[in-house]
Structure to design on (1136 residues):
């Protein structure tokens, strides 16, 4: 198992490097700099600012300098918010986004697995069509449509839940989490249904029944482990998608998380902010992908021993 | 004493194409301390019958139309699922066909083995574990302690089947139902498992209901035989009578299809068509450091006009050898000469021309034909590629081909999925002989077919060989078939050539110990067939 | 010499190709049929937008302002007095165009890449798929956003950016298909007959790989459309004066309290189209699944 993990980590390093490099040069290649804003700035002042932020050095020097800073864990100062470093801004936004993402993922997993397994137990009946119909809605209704509609219904018409902000009230978290998680609940429902159906048609399920196992036991003891492997493998891409989705959800619900900062930074050409957030998020995604791959492989004993013992 | 009495059982299935009667009013009797065999080809309903007894048929498409199944004072067909669950695994044990897929790959052997005990008795986990180990010893598993902790994929097919049998018997059931338990196993392993089942039946005094498509397999172990055809019970009685004095035509046909008879006298053929020297075909995989030595230093010659049988179990390398000869896989080392031409140094355009003279018939009739090409197109392809006919004569040529393999001309524009297995093999054979090749490799061409169809295809192959003067390499794991059709036999084991010689000599005086083991494992040789 | 045929038959019997079987099966799937019909209507409607829309695309009516649906304006008007139905029709052209064209780009690249990798195998395959794996690991959403911000206002770039994300999965699926087909015996038979690799690829492999690719393509279009809507919502996709459903939804979300119809109608248009595509895709998958029964 260890070899597998090590291998994946080594494979991930060039990916992260590629991300940093591409982002760096891409951003610099764009027309316009951070200080070319609407405000008319005297050329000398602009020059001084650029010197202060080392923007007048040759590009490759800036790149190498950035890499050096990165090794220290220093993501640099924000261009747009003088005095604040990227690390600070990330630190303030990350907990919020993490919490939102966590709730959304929990929602997606619980609802999705439950619906999918339920549907697989009685395929082509109402027990199947209803959850899968709802899943279809989850897939076809994007978060930026679902969110406003939920706000409209629950926030404005029914006035049950708050419509924005991210305070300490649990009620704040419900609508954003549902909005963000619903598409993933739908995907997970479909994946777990397909996975379960596949497993339930296997010969060893028939063997379990022939031993006298009840339907419940067959599902939980024999089928679930194999049937959920596709869901586990999906967690990696789901994480990446949730991060991206948070951009929109945070905008709709006015939540001060990473996503909003990222979008704003992109508009503002705040180089270090863009770069820092991209690097940070990318590393997170790579780690999560690794974890989900390892988990999925670990769940299948055939793969588990292949990587540990040398047979 | 009758353990299980089935009366007038009828089962049907509702499918896309209407209702299919799988079992029609069948009567079966299984006695204590006896082995009752149900013999039938595919579509006979033999498996459906057993599954119906234990309520394992999914009842939306399936339906029990009528009948009774009396076991231990109860009619199984009237029991609820809950009551049936109490019977399954405790009073009636079941063993299935494919040991590779019938065990849960995600659970350890010990866990699966103990499950019936934990489900049906009050034994503690510790006691169940002890009992499980006892059973593993009884079925002949070496090192049962270790086996308990292992996962199924760590075992071979034969071992897994032993575990399945242990699992079925662990609650001391009075009846064991075995659905084709040895069909997926190699010949030598099959012999062992048959012996195991029979000895367990005798030792424990239980009744065994044994399903098979192969009369030869059950000939030595069955006490009673029931023959089924298309859902009907066609003949039944005690084993000897059914085999030695069959009454029904179908039974006679089945018996006649069993490849038997003594091998012909050997007439050496003078000309050599193919020579192989030091052939090695090794496969390198990422997972293992050592390459897989599928063919490991094999040398022999094939004479023009003969049928050389190549026999071996799974993993022997026989299929790889056949493919190596036709350059369908890359060889690692060695020389192959076809009619004097060195196949290793041949140029690509020359190889294409040469391919006209060597063809292959594949094993699986369901995947050896392009599902999107009609019969006509499939047969025309080789003719057109090698410019053997003009466009104007194409239609006539294809129809003639269809005639020679026994396919009705009207089927020319049909697609493979509309045919049965036997018919598809005819199409595949037609494709192979289209170019009138000198040499054909037949890779297990009848292994996937029912016994009666098998006999027809073998007859077809023999006739075509005579008519076209084809030299054949006939690859098979079935010794009885090999004995019937081959002039000479080569035996392979783990990539190496164990023995080669005239069929008569090899079968009557085998030299290698492996060959001897193989010959002993031929099923049904101690029973007398007409 | 002929052998006693197993079956006897009269004249030419009508054959039933796998396509025909699949088509019959699809027709029985009501949801898929409805989806296909709805999709056709939608495509027709937006294609004929210039002729059938009741008003000019950019006809503003500032006095009117935003009004609820009425006889004159079936879907109401936006804050500039523009007819919403017209906006939706024209917006649909962009959204559907992006969906189909970007998918086509992804399909072209993905199928070529995947079939070459799958058929060649060995080192070429390993190298090509390693490339795909590395790209796959990149957080594309973030990159697309970056691209659009950096180079924005370019619809061609939008196509390319989206296509660049989707081709990876297409390549993977195609490669798996080709690989599994390559091992089928009828491909070996084709080699043994003497056919060249190119002919084998063209005549034997690709026709048999087409089925799953059709399904996957039908299911990629909606996810591409979602991607475009997502970007437009963030202000990074389609820019005014052009419009798309995503853009319309984002405007509608801003004013949803006062003018909910501005959100509902474009939302419904997008959701319905996505439904149709997904149902059709699912139906196709079920219909093409049974590839020649083993009975």
């Amino acid at each position: 198992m260890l070899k597998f993990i090590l291998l994946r980590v080594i494979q991930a390093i060039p990916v992260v490097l590629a991300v940093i490099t591409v982002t760096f040069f891409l951003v610099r290649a764009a027309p316009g700099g951070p200080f070319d804003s609407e405000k008319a700035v005297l050329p000398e002042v602009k020059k001084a600012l650029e010197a202060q932020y080392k923007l007048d050095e040759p590009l490759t020097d800036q790149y190498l300098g950035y890499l050096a800073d990165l090794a220290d864990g220093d993501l640099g100062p924000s261009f747009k918010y003088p005095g604040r470093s990227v690390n600070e801004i990330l630190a303030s936004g990350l907990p919020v986004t993490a919490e939102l993402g966590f709730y959304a993922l929990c929602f997606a997993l619980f609802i999705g697995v439950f619906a999918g397994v339920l549907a697989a137990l009685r395929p082509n009946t109402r027990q199947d069509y209803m959850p899968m119909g709802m899943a279809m809605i989850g897939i076809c209704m994007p978060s930026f449509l679902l969110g406003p509609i939920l706000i409209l219904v629950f926030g404005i018409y029914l006035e049950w839940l708050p419509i924005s902000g991210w305070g300490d009230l649990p009620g704040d978290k419900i609508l954003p989490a549902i909005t963000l998680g619903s598409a993933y609940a739908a995907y997970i429902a479909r994946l777990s249904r397909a996975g379960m159906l596949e497993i339930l048609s296997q010969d060893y399920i028939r063997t379990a029944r022939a031993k006298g196992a009840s339907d419940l036991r067959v599902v939980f003891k024999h089928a679930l482990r194999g049937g959920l492997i596709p869901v586990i493998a999906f967690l990696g891409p789901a994480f990446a998608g949730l991060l991206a989705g948070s951009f929109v959800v945070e905008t709709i619900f006015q939540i001060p998380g990473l996503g909003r900062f990222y979008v704003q930074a992109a508009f503002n050409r705040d180089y270090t902010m863009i770069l820092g957030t991209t690097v940070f998020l990318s590393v997170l995604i790579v780690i999560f992908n690794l974890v989900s791959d390892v988990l999925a492989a670990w769940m299948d004993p055939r793969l588990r021993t292949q990587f540990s013992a040398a047979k | 004493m009758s353990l299980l009495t089935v009366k007038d059982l009828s089962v049907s299935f509702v499918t896309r194409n209407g209702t299919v009667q799988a079992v029609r009013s069948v009567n079966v009797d299984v006695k204590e301390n006896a082995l009752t065999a149900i013999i039938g080809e595919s579509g006979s309903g033999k498996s459906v019958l057993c599954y119906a007894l234990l309520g394992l048929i999914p009842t939306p498409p399936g339906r029990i139309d009528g009948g009774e199944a009396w076991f231990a004072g109860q009619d199984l067909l009237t029991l609820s699922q809950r009551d049936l669950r109490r019977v399954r695994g405790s009073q009636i044990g079941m063993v299935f066909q494919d040991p590779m897929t019938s065990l849960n790959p995600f659970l350890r052997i010990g866990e699966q083995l103990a499950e019936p005990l934990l489900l049906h008795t009050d034994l503690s986990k510790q006691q169940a574990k002890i009992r499980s180990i006892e059973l593993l010893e009884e079925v002949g598993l070496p090192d049962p302690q270790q086996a308990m902790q292992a996962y199924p994929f760590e075992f071979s097919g034969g071992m897994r089947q032993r575990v399945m049998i242990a699992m079925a018997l662990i609650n001391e059931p009075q009846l064991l139902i075995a659905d084709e338990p040895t069909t997926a196993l190699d010949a030598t392993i099959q012999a062992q498992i048959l012996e195991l089942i029979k000895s367990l039946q005798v030792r424990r005094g239980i009744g065994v209901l044994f399903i098979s498509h192969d009369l030869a397999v059950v000939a030595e172990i069955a006490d009673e035989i029931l023959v089924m055809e298309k859902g009907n019970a066609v003949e039944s009685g005690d084993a000897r009578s059914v085999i030695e004095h069959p009454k029904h035509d179908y039974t006679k046909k089945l018996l006649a299809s069993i490849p038997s008879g003594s091998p012909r006298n050997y007439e050496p053929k003078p000309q050599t068509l193919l020579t192989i020297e030091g052939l090695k075909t090794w496969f390198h995989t990422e997972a293992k450091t050592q390459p897989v030595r599928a063919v490991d230093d094999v040398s022999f010659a094939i004479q023009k006009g003969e049928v050389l049988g190549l026999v071996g179990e799974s993993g022997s390398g026989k299929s790889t050898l056949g493919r190596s000869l036709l350059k369908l896989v890359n060889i690692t080392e060695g020389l192959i000469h076809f009619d004097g031409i060195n196949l290793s140094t041949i140029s690509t355009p020359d190889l294409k021309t040469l391919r006209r003279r060597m063809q292959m018939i594949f094993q699986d009739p369901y995947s050896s034909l392009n599902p999107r090409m009609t019969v006509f197109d499939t047969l025309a392809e080789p003719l057109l590629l090698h410019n053997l006919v003009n466009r104007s004569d194409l239609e006539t040529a294809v129809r003639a081909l269809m005639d020679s393999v026994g396919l009705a001309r009207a089927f020319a524009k049909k697609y493979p999925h509309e045919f049965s297995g036997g018919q598809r093999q005819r199409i595949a054979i037609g494709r192979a002989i289209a170019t009138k090749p000198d040499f054909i490799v037949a890779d297990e061409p009848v292994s996937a077919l029912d016994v009666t169809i098998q006999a027809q295809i073998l007859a077809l192959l023999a006739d075509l060989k005579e008519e076209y003067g084809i030299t054949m390499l006939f690859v098979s794991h079935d010794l009885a078939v090999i004995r019937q059709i081959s002039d000479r036999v080569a035996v392979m084991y783990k990539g190496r050539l164990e023995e080669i010689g005239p069929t008569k000599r090899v079968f009557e005086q085998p030299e290698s110990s492996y060959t001897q083991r193989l010959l002993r494992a031929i099923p049904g040789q101690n029973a007398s067939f007409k | 010499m002929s052998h006693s045929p197993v079956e006897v038959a009269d004249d030419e019997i009508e054959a039933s190709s796998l396509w025909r079987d699949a088509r019959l099966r699809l027709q029985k799937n009501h949801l898929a049929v409805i989806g296909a019909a709805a999709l056709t209507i939608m495509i027709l409607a937006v294609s004929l937008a210039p002729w059938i829309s009741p008003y000019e695309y950019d006809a503003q009516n500032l006095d009117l302002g935003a009004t609820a649906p009425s006889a004159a304006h079936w879907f109401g008007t936006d804050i500039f007095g523009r007819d919403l139905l017209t906006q939706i029709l024209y917006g649909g052209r962009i959204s559907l165009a992006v969906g189909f064209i970007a998918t086509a780009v992804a399909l072209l690249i993905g199928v070529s890449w995947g079939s070459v990798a799958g058929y060649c195998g060995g080192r070429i395959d390993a190298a090509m798929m390693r490339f795909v794996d590395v790209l796959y690991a990149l957080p594309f959403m973030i990159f697309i956003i970056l691209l659009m911000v950096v180079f924005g206002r370019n619809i061609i770039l939008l196509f390319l950016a989206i296509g660049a994300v989707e081709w990876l999965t297409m390549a993977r699926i195609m490669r798996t298909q080709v690989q599994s087909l390559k091992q089928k015996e009828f491909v070996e038979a084709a080699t043994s007959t003497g056919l060249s690799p190119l002919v084998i690829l063209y005549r034997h492999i690709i026709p048999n790989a087409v089925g799953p690719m059709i399904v996957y393509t039908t299911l990629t279009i909606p996810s591409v459309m979602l991607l475009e809507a997502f970007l437009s919502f963030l202000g990074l996709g389609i820019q005014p004066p052009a419009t798309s459903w995503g853009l319309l939804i984002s405007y509608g979300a801003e004013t949803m309290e006062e003018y909910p119809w501005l959100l509902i109608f474009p939302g419904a248009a997008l959701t319905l189209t996505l439904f149709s595509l997904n149902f059709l895709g699912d139906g196709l998958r079920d219909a093409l699944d049974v590839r020649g029964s083993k009975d």
Q: What stands out?
A: The longest helix of chain B spans residues 187-204.
